[in-house]
Amino acid sequence: MNNRKWILVLIGVLVIGGLFYLFASQPAASHQPTASKPALHKVRLGLAAYQDVLVPYIGVIKGWYKERGLDVDVSFWEYDAIPEAIASGSIDVGVSNFALVIATHSHSPNMVYAYAFNPFDGGFALMIRPDGKLKPLDYFLKQGLSREEAIRQTAQQLKGKTVVTTGNTDMEQAVASFARRGGLDFRKDITVKDLPPDEGLALFLSGVGDAYMGGIPQRTRAGKEGNLEMLYGTDLGSPPLNGFVTTKQFAATREDDLLKIINVYFHTAKYINADVDQGGEIIIKELNSRSGAKFTKADFRKAWNGLEHFFASPEDAQRVVLDPSGTNYWKTCWDDCNHYFYEIVKTIPAPVAPEDIFIMEKVQRDYIKKYGSQ
Known about the structure:
Layout: H1 3-24, E1 41-47, H2 57-62, H3 64-67, E2 70-76, H4 82-87, E3 93-96, H5 98-103, E4 111-119, E5 125-128, H6 137-141, H7 147-156, E6 162-165, H8 170-181, H9 186-189, E7 191-194, H10 197-205, E8 211-213, H11 216-224, E9 228-232, E10 241-247, H12 248-253, H13 255-274, H14 276-290, H15 297-303, H16 314-322, H17 330-344, H18 360-371
Parallel strand pairs: 1-2, 1-3, 6-7, 6-8
Antiparallel strand pairs: 3-10, 4-10, 5-8, 5-9
Protein backbone atom coordinates (compact mmCIF):
# COMPACT_ATOMS: atom_id res chain seq x y z
CA MET A 1 0.00 0.00 0.00
CA ASN A 2 1.51 3.28 -1.02
CA ASN A 3 1.81 6.33 1.20
CA ARG A 4 -1.21 8.02 -0.39
CA LYS A 5 -3.50 5.13 0.53
CA TRP A 6 -2.17 5.11 4.11
CA ILE A 7 -2.93 8.79 4.46
CA LEU A 8 -6.52 8.33 3.21
CA VAL A 9 -7.10 5.43 5.63
CA LEU A 10 -5.74 7.46 8.52
CA ILE A 11 -7.98 10.43 7.69
CA GLY A 12 -11.04 8.13 7.53
CA VAL A 13 -10.26 6.62 10.94
CA LEU A 14 -9.84 10.05 12.48
CA VAL A 15 -13.13 11.33 10.99
CA ILE A 16 -15.12 8.26 12.13
CA GLY A 17 -13.58 8.41 15.59
CA GLY A 18 -14.38 12.11 15.91
CA LEU A 19 -17.99 11.62 14.91
CA PHE A 20 -18.36 8.73 17.33
CA TYR A 21 -17.00 10.84 20.18
CA LEU A 22 -19.26 13.77 19.25
CA PHE A 23 -22.48 11.75 19.28
CA ALA A 24 -21.48 9.66 22.29
CA SER A 25 -20.93 12.80 24.37
CA GLN A 26 -24.47 14.13 23.66
CA PRO A 27 -27.42 13.01 25.86
CA ALA A 28 -29.94 10.89 24.03
CA ALA A 29 -32.74 13.20 22.88
CA SER A 30 -35.31 10.46 23.12
CA HIS A 31 -34.74 10.18 26.88
CA GLN A 32 -35.15 13.89 27.63
CA PRO A 33 -38.55 15.21 28.75
CA THR A 34 -40.06 17.74 26.34
CA ALA A 35 -40.99 21.01 28.04
CA SER A 36 -44.47 22.25 27.03
CA LYS A 37 -46.61 25.18 28.05
CA PRO A 38 -49.67 24.34 30.14
CA ALA A 39 -52.92 24.31 28.17
CA LEU A 40 -54.88 27.56 28.15
CA HIS A 41 -58.09 27.57 30.17
CA LYS A 42 -61.06 28.09 27.88
CA VAL A 43 -63.56 30.77 28.93
CA ARG A 44 -66.67 31.69 26.93
CA LEU A 45 -67.31 35.41 27.37
CA GLY A 46 -70.59 37.05 26.34
CA LEU A 47 -70.57 40.73 25.32
CA ALA A 48 -72.97 43.19 23.68
CA ALA A 49 -72.44 46.01 21.18
CA TYR A 50 -72.08 48.94 23.57
CA GLN A 51 -69.06 51.16 24.09
CA ASP A 52 -68.77 50.10 27.76
CA VAL A 53 -69.61 46.41 27.46
CA LEU A 54 -66.98 46.05 24.73
CA VAL A 55 -64.08 47.11 26.97
CA PRO A 56 -63.13 43.46 27.82
CA TYR A 57 -62.90 42.73 24.08
CA ILE A 58 -59.67 44.73 23.83
CA GLY A 59 -57.93 42.06 25.91
CA VAL A 60 -58.76 39.48 23.24
CA ILE A 61 -57.32 41.57 20.42
CA LYS A 62 -54.21 42.48 22.42
CA GLY A 63 -53.58 38.92 23.65
CA TRP A 64 -53.71 39.90 27.33
CA TYR A 65 -55.92 36.97 28.33
CA LYS A 66 -53.53 34.48 26.73
CA GLU A 67 -50.64 36.04 28.63
CA ARG A 68 -52.52 35.06 31.79
CA GLY A 69 -53.30 31.54 30.61
CA LEU A 70 -56.83 32.06 29.29
CA ASP A 71 -58.29 31.22 25.89
CA VAL A 72 -61.24 33.63 25.80
CA ASP A 73 -63.89 32.89 23.19
CA VAL A 74 -66.15 35.95 22.72
CA SER A 75 -69.72 35.77 21.48
CA PHE A 76 -72.06 38.72 21.00
CA TRP A 77 -75.62 39.01 22.30
CA GLU A 78 -78.34 41.56 22.81
CA TYR A 79 -77.57 43.06 26.20
CA ASP A 80 -80.76 41.79 27.83
CA ALA A 81 -80.11 38.27 26.45
CA ILE A 82 -76.84 37.75 28.33
CA PRO A 83 -78.53 36.38 31.51
CA GLU A 84 -80.34 33.80 29.39
CA ALA A 85 -77.04 32.87 27.75
CA ILE A 86 -75.58 32.30 31.22
CA ALA A 87 -78.61 30.27 32.31
CA SER A 88 -78.55 28.08 29.19
CA GLY A 89 -74.84 27.34 29.52
CA SER A 90 -73.96 29.12 26.28
CA ILE A 91 -71.38 31.34 28.03
CA ASP A 92 -69.39 31.14 31.26
CA VAL A 93 -69.04 34.86 32.00
CA GLY A 94 -70.93 37.89 30.69
CA VAL A 95 -71.37 41.60 31.27
CA SER A 96 -74.70 42.61 32.80
CA ASN A 97 -76.17 44.63 35.68
CA PHE A 98 -78.34 44.36 38.79
CA ALA A 99 -81.58 44.91 36.90
CA LEU A 100 -81.14 41.89 34.66
CA VAL A 101 -79.81 39.68 37.46
CA ILE A 102 -82.83 40.48 39.64
CA ALA A 103 -85.35 40.31 36.79
CA THR A 104 -84.25 36.81 35.77
CA HIS A 105 -83.45 35.36 39.21
CA SER A 106 -86.69 33.41 39.64
CA HIS A 107 -85.90 31.23 36.61
CA SER A 108 -82.09 31.64 36.64
CA PRO A 109 -81.22 31.30 40.34
CA ASN A 110 -77.75 29.98 39.48
CA MET A 111 -76.50 33.34 38.16
CA VAL A 112 -74.41 35.59 40.39
CA TYR A 113 -73.20 39.15 40.10
CA ALA A 114 -69.44 38.87 40.51
CA TYR A 115 -67.84 42.29 40.08
CA ALA A 116 -68.90 45.85 39.27
CA PHE A 117 -66.49 47.81 37.09
CA ASN A 118 -68.55 50.53 35.38
CA PRO A 119 -71.12 52.83 37.04
CA PHE A 120 -73.44 54.10 34.32
CA ASP A 121 -73.90 57.29 36.32
CA GLY A 122 -74.36 59.78 33.49
CA GLY A 123 -75.16 57.32 30.73
CA PHE A 124 -78.92 57.24 30.34
CA ALA A 125 -80.76 60.16 28.78
CA LEU A 126 -84.43 60.45 27.92
CA MET A 127 -84.48 61.76 24.35
CA ILE A 128 -87.28 63.99 23.05
CA ARG A 129 -88.07 65.63 19.74
CA PRO A 130 -86.93 69.21 19.03
CA ASP A 131 -90.43 70.50 18.24
CA GLY A 132 -91.04 71.75 21.79
CA LYS A 133 -94.04 69.60 22.75
CA LEU A 134 -91.98 68.18 25.62
CA LYS A 135 -89.61 70.54 27.40
CA PRO A 136 -86.16 69.55 28.73
CA LEU A 137 -85.11 69.97 32.35
CA ASP A 138 -83.13 73.12 31.52
CA TYR A 139 -86.37 74.85 30.48
CA PHE A 140 -87.70 74.55 34.04
CA LEU A 141 -84.38 75.28 35.73
CA LYS A 142 -84.18 78.59 33.84
CA GLN A 143 -87.46 79.58 35.50
CA GLY A 144 -85.65 79.64 38.84
CA LEU A 145 -87.13 76.40 40.19
CA SER A 146 -85.17 74.16 42.55
CA ARG A 147 -83.70 71.11 40.86
CA GLU A 148 -86.11 68.82 42.68
CA GLU A 149 -89.14 70.84 41.57
CA ALA A 150 -87.78 71.21 38.03
CA ILE A 151 -87.39 67.41 37.79
CA ARG A 152 -90.95 66.95 39.09
CA GLN A 153 -92.44 69.29 36.50
CA THR A 154 -90.30 67.80 33.72
CA ALA A 155 -91.54 64.34 34.61
CA GLN A 156 -95.20 65.38 34.78
CA GLN A 157 -95.11 66.11 31.06
CA LEU A 158 -94.98 62.36 30.37
CA LYS A 159 -98.57 61.81 31.48
CA GLY A 160 -100.47 60.32 28.54
CA LYS A 161 -97.30 60.06 26.43
CA THR A 162 -95.58 57.10 24.76
CA VAL A 163 -91.98 56.22 25.60
CA VAL A 164 -90.01 53.85 23.37
CA THR A 165 -87.59 51.76 25.44
CA THR A 166 -86.62 48.18 26.31
CA GLY A 167 -88.93 46.56 28.85
CA ASN A 168 -87.80 44.82 32.04
CA THR A 169 -84.32 46.36 31.86
CA ASP A 170 -82.48 49.19 33.58
CA MET A 171 -83.59 51.38 30.66
CA GLU A 172 -87.29 51.00 31.47
CA GLN A 173 -86.40 51.17 35.16
CA ALA A 174 -84.89 54.64 34.61
CA VAL A 175 -88.11 55.78 32.92
CA ALA A 176 -90.19 54.37 35.79
CA SER A 177 -87.98 56.06 38.37
CA PHE A 178 -88.31 59.37 36.53
CA ALA A 179 -92.10 59.02 36.31
CA ARG A 180 -92.27 58.39 40.06
CA ARG A 181 -90.43 61.68 40.63
CA GLY A 182 -93.27 63.41 38.85
CA GLY A 183 -95.93 61.68 40.91
CA LEU A 184 -97.06 59.58 37.93
CA ASP A 185 -98.25 56.00 37.92
CA PHE A 186 -95.83 54.35 35.52
CA ARG A 187 -98.31 51.66 34.45
CA LYS A 188 -101.38 53.88 34.10
CA ASP A 189 -100.03 57.26 33.03
CA ILE A 190 -97.38 56.23 30.46
CA THR A 191 -97.50 53.91 27.45
CA VAL A 192 -94.29 51.95 26.85
CA LYS A 193 -93.34 50.73 23.38
CA ASP A 194 -91.13 47.76 24.25
CA LEU A 195 -88.36 47.03 21.70
CA PRO A 196 -84.64 46.17 21.70
CA PRO A 197 -82.54 49.39 21.76
CA ASP A 198 -81.59 49.58 18.07
CA GLU A 199 -85.07 48.67 16.87
CA GLY A 200 -86.61 51.14 19.28
CA LEU A 201 -84.30 53.90 18.08
CA ALA A 202 -85.22 53.23 14.45
CA LEU A 203 -88.90 53.43 15.36
CA PHE A 204 -88.44 56.64 17.32
CA LEU A 205 -86.45 58.23 14.48
CA SER A 206 -89.29 57.28 12.12
CA GLY A 207 -91.68 59.40 14.20
CA VAL A 208 -93.22 56.89 16.61
CA GLY A 209 -93.45 57.80 20.30
CA ASP A 210 -92.90 60.99 22.26
CA ALA A 211 -89.64 60.06 24.00
CA TYR A 212 -86.92 57.42 23.72
CA MET A 213 -84.58 55.71 26.18
CA GLY A 214 -81.67 53.54 25.05
CA GLY A 215 -77.95 53.14 25.68
CA ILE A 216 -75.19 55.63 24.93
CA PRO A 217 -74.77 54.56 21.26
CA GLN A 218 -78.50 55.06 20.65
CA ARG A 219 -78.58 58.27 22.68
CA THR A 220 -75.65 59.60 20.63
CA ARG A 221 -77.27 58.68 17.33
CA ALA A 222 -80.59 60.27 18.37
CA GLY A 223 -78.75 63.48 19.25
CA LYS A 224 -77.00 63.55 15.89
CA GLU A 225 -80.42 63.29 14.27
CA GLY A 226 -81.46 66.52 16.01
CA ASN A 227 -83.24 65.18 19.08
CA LEU A 228 -82.76 66.65 22.56
CA GLU A 229 -81.92 65.30 26.00
CA MET A 230 -84.93 65.83 28.24
CA LEU A 231 -82.68 65.00 31.21
CA TYR A 232 -80.00 62.44 31.97
CA GLY A 233 -77.91 60.61 34.53
CA THR A 234 -78.74 60.65 38.21
CA ASP A 235 -81.64 63.07 37.59
CA LEU A 236 -83.47 60.00 36.30
CA GLY A 237 -82.71 57.88 39.37
CA SER A 238 -80.14 55.46 40.77
CA PRO A 239 -77.60 54.62 38.01
CA PRO A 240 -76.98 51.03 36.88
CA LEU A 241 -73.76 49.17 37.67
CA ASN A 242 -72.29 47.21 34.77
CA GLY A 243 -70.16 44.25 35.80
CA PHE A 244 -69.23 40.61 35.31
CA VAL A 245 -71.86 37.95 35.92
CA THR A 246 -71.34 34.20 35.97
CA THR A 247 -72.71 31.04 37.56
CA LYS A 248 -72.28 29.88 41.15
CA GLN A 249 -70.34 26.86 39.88
CA PHE A 250 -67.90 28.89 37.78
CA ALA A 251 -67.29 31.34 40.62
CA ALA A 252 -66.63 28.47 43.05
CA THR A 253 -64.52 26.14 40.89
CA ARG A 254 -62.78 28.58 38.56
CA GLU A 255 -62.38 31.70 40.65
CA ASP A 256 -58.74 32.06 39.60
CA ASP A 257 -59.87 32.40 35.96
CA LEU A 258 -62.49 34.94 37.02
CA LEU A 259 -59.83 36.96 38.84
CA LYS A 260 -57.67 36.91 35.71
CA ILE A 261 -60.54 38.32 33.65
CA ILE A 262 -60.96 41.13 36.19
CA ASN A 263 -57.21 41.74 36.13
CA VAL A 264 -57.29 42.13 32.35
CA TYR A 265 -60.16 44.59 32.74
CA PHE A 266 -58.15 46.83 35.07
CA HIS A 267 -55.16 46.56 32.73
CA THR A 268 -57.40 47.59 29.82
CA ALA A 269 -58.86 50.57 31.69
CA LYS A 270 -55.34 51.82 32.46
CA TYR A 271 -54.42 51.34 28.80
CA ILE A 272 -57.37 53.46 27.65
CA ASN A 273 -56.74 56.08 30.33
CA ALA A 274 -53.23 56.54 28.92
CA ASP A 275 -54.54 57.30 25.41
CA VAL A 276 -58.31 57.44 25.02
CA ASP A 277 -58.23 57.79 21.23
CA GLN A 278 -55.94 54.82 20.72
CA GLY A 279 -57.71 52.74 23.34
CA GLY A 280 -61.10 53.46 21.82
CA GLU A 281 -60.23 52.45 18.25
CA ILE A 282 -60.96 48.74 18.73
CA ILE A 283 -64.22 49.47 20.53
CA ILE A 284 -65.43 52.01 17.97
CA LYS A 285 -64.70 49.67 15.06
CA GLU A 286 -66.50 46.73 16.68
CA LEU A 287 -69.42 48.85 17.89
CA ASN A 288 -70.09 50.43 14.50
CA SER A 289 -69.83 47.07 12.73
CA ARG A 290 -72.55 45.65 14.99
CA SER A 291 -74.92 48.60 15.38
CA GLY A 292 -76.08 51.77 13.72
CA ALA A 293 -74.37 53.93 16.35
CA LYS A 294 -71.93 55.70 13.96
CA PHE A 295 -69.72 56.28 16.99
CA THR A 296 -66.70 58.57 16.62
CA LYS A 297 -63.56 59.17 18.66
CA ALA A 298 -65.18 62.35 19.98
CA ASP A 299 -68.21 60.32 21.11
CA PHE A 300 -65.96 57.82 22.87
CA ARG A 301 -63.98 60.58 24.61
CA LYS A 302 -67.27 62.06 25.87
CA ALA A 303 -68.41 58.71 27.25
CA TRP A 304 -65.11 57.51 28.77
CA ASN A 305 -65.00 58.73 32.38
CA GLY A 306 -67.45 61.45 31.36
CA LEU A 307 -70.97 60.15 30.84
CA GLU A 308 -69.96 57.00 32.69
CA HIS A 309 -66.96 55.87 34.71
CA PHE A 310 -64.59 52.94 34.47
CA PHE A 311 -62.59 51.54 37.37
CA ALA A 312 -58.86 51.11 36.81
CA SER A 313 -58.20 49.39 40.15
CA PRO A 314 -59.99 47.50 42.94
CA GLU A 315 -59.32 50.56 45.08
CA ASP A 316 -61.63 52.56 42.77
CA ALA A 317 -64.30 49.87 43.01
CA GLN A 318 -64.05 49.79 46.79
CA ARG A 319 -64.43 53.55 47.17
CA VAL A 320 -67.34 53.96 44.75
CA VAL A 321 -69.34 50.72 45.00
CA LEU A 322 -68.48 48.73 48.13
CA ASP A 323 -68.14 51.47 50.75
CA PRO A 324 -71.55 52.55 52.15
CA SER A 325 -70.53 56.19 51.62
CA GLY A 326 -69.69 55.54 47.96
CA THR A 327 -71.36 57.60 45.25
CA ASN A 328 -72.75 54.40 43.70
CA TYR A 329 -73.13 52.18 46.77
CA TRP A 330 -74.26 48.79 45.51
CA LYS A 331 -77.03 48.23 48.08
CA THR A 332 -78.88 51.41 47.05
CA CYS A 333 -78.94 50.27 43.43
CA TRP A 334 -79.95 46.73 44.44
CA ASP A 335 -82.89 47.99 46.51
CA ASP A 336 -84.03 50.31 43.70
CA CYS A 337 -84.06 47.38 41.26
CA ASN A 338 -86.08 45.24 43.67
CA HIS A 339 -88.58 48.08 44.09
CA TYR A 340 -88.97 48.47 40.33
CA PHE A 341 -89.47 44.81 39.50
CA TYR A 342 -91.54 43.84 42.56
CA GLU A 343 -93.55 46.97 43.36
CA ILE A 344 -93.93 48.74 40.02
CA VAL A 345 -93.89 46.31 37.09
CA LYS A 346 -94.60 43.27 39.32
CA THR A 347 -92.56 40.85 37.23
CA ILE A 348 -90.79 39.05 40.10
CA PRO A 349 -92.56 36.96 42.78
CA ALA A 350 -90.55 38.51 45.64
CA PRO A 351 -87.64 40.88 46.21
CA VAL A 352 -84.31 39.15 45.53
CA ALA A 353 -81.99 38.92 48.54
CA PRO A 354 -78.36 39.72 47.65
CA GLU A 355 -76.93 36.90 49.80
CA ASP A 356 -75.14 34.36 47.56
CA ILE A 357 -76.14 36.42 44.49
CA PHE A 358 -74.03 39.54 44.94
CA ILE A 359 -70.57 38.02 45.52
CA MET A 360 -68.41 41.06 44.76
CA GLU A 361 -67.28 41.54 48.35
CA LYS A 362 -65.73 38.05 48.46
CA VAL A 363 -64.27 38.39 44.97
CA GLN A 364 -62.78 41.75 45.97
CA ARG A 365 -61.02 40.21 49.00
CA ASP A 366 -59.65 37.33 46.93
CA TYR A 367 -58.55 39.63 44.12
CA ILE A 368 -56.61 41.94 46.43
CA LYS A 369 -54.96 38.95 48.08
CA LYS A 370 -53.74 37.73 44.68
CA TYR A 371 -53.02 40.98 42.79
CA GLY A 372 -53.05 43.86 45.30
CA SER A 373 -55.29 46.91 45.40
CA GLN A 374 -53.71 49.02 42.65
